[in-house]
UniProtKB/TrEMBL annotation:
GO MF terms, alphabetically ordered: nucleotide binding; oxidoreductase activity
PANTHER family referenced in this protein's UniProt entry, alphabetically: OXIDOREDUCTASES, TRANS-1,2-DIHYDROBENZENE-1,2-DIOL DEHYDROGENASE
Name used for this protein in its record: Gfo/Idh/MocA family oxidoreductase
GFO/IDH/MocA-like oxidoreductase domain segment(s): 197-317
Domain of life: Bacteria
Pfam family, one: GFO_IDH_MocA
Amino acid sequence: MMDDAPRLWTRRRMLGATGGLLTASAWMPPVLAAAPPVKLPDTFAKTERERPGPPNPQPESERVGWAVVGLGHLSLEEILPAFGQMKRGKLVALVSGDRAKAQAIAKQYGVADKSLYDYKSFDQLKDNPEVQAVYIVLPNSMHAEFTVRAAQAGKHVFCEKPMANTSAECQQMIDACRKADRKLGIAYRLQYEPHHRAVIQMARNKELGTLKLFTANNGQNQGDPNQWRHKKALAGGGALPDVGIYCLSAARYFSGEEPTEVQGFSYSTPDDPRFKEVEESFAFHLRFPSGFQAHCTSHYSTHETKDLRLMGTDGWASMDPGFSYSGLRLRVGMKSKSFPKADDTVERSFSQPSQFAREMDHFSRCVQENVVPHTPGEEGLADMRIIEALYRSAQEGQAVKLEAAKKLDAFRGPPPKEEG
Ligand code: NAD
């Protein structure tokens, strides 16, 4: 096993060092056992909502070191600022093709000059023991190459969605990480988000009755025709893999099921220079084994629209916006328990910490505690297989059947523990 974490003891190293004498239940990472969380006395009455309490971040020296690869919009606007809210991870290296930009950003975030890399020198990350996890935030076609190279450099990999451009590339990424004994996580930020987690919990507890239908729309109006998102070789596709994937993914994680029949409809306005290579809009229908169905649309030419609604026999949960980085609004509707002649519609508001800090803290914990990520490579591969089937369906003008999954949440790791 490659060892890039000299300060943090993995369970395997601990067992090895003690000749396997410690039992799994007796084992505790020594750094965590040594630092009990600080708690404060309650200030509010029991009728008030529970506060998360102090964040209790780990000391800097014990956190997982991250390298962020690609310094575009998502990295600069969301991911790097999120390190300020993290409890288990810290930014230690940057990878960019633009040295001047990397140096400017390094100054802002306190990254050492020696920890700046470009796409050629990327493999030298193997000699930087401070870096344990690498976050790939590049155009979609580059995800596979940089995941494989990161794994070969002995680093754990967290990769943006869509996982890659094809399911074959997704499989290569999974294989490379497995071979190098490194973790692979896909950045499905909403699977760690409190409102989405609440809907998952309501669905699993049957609070909405039997799930029947999911509808969702995710759209934005695209600008510059020359950006990589409009080049098939770089993006893999248009609205579907970029924004439609959120609807597809939510239908899967709210129900826990995998679709067995899918049908897709693609459209691009003729002569619009943005959509010469990738689709402008993609609508799709998914059928699941229990009879649950999803109907979703994704757009590259509508004003920002991000709504969803999960409908069961006894109630519904609706979010608008439902896919944004912040400002999510969740409403739940069902027959009133107090007034049988009325419906209750309640708004459930959770605090909204950075979704990126949450998912990166989860992945950091997986590295520290040797746990399978909640959204591993297999979860990204599952979406990509369905996306491929949807494109085939749109091309052939008919529904495409898919293999049934053997269990609920077939491709997910254990639920995230992150709170707050
Ligand atoms: P972006 O265009 O803003 O940034 C891409 C970065 O890659 C830039 O720094 C660019 O210089 C670099 N790059 C390297 N080689 C390139 C090439 N050949 N062509 C173009 N750029 C190249 O894109 P972004 O919005 O930051 O998206 C990056 C990734 O993050 C994509 O996979 C995207 O799907 C994903 N993303 C995820 C979310 C989310 O909510 N999870 C949101 C936005 C983007």
